[in-house]
Amino acid sequence: MGDLETRKWHTFYPVYINAKKTQSEGRRVSKPKAVDNPTLNDITAALRKLTLQFKEEPNKAYSRDFTLRGRVKVRLIDENKTPYVATIKNKKQLLLEVAKLIQAVKKTQPAASSQNTGGKKKRNK
Question: What is the pLDDT of residue 59?
Answer without folding.
Answer: 92
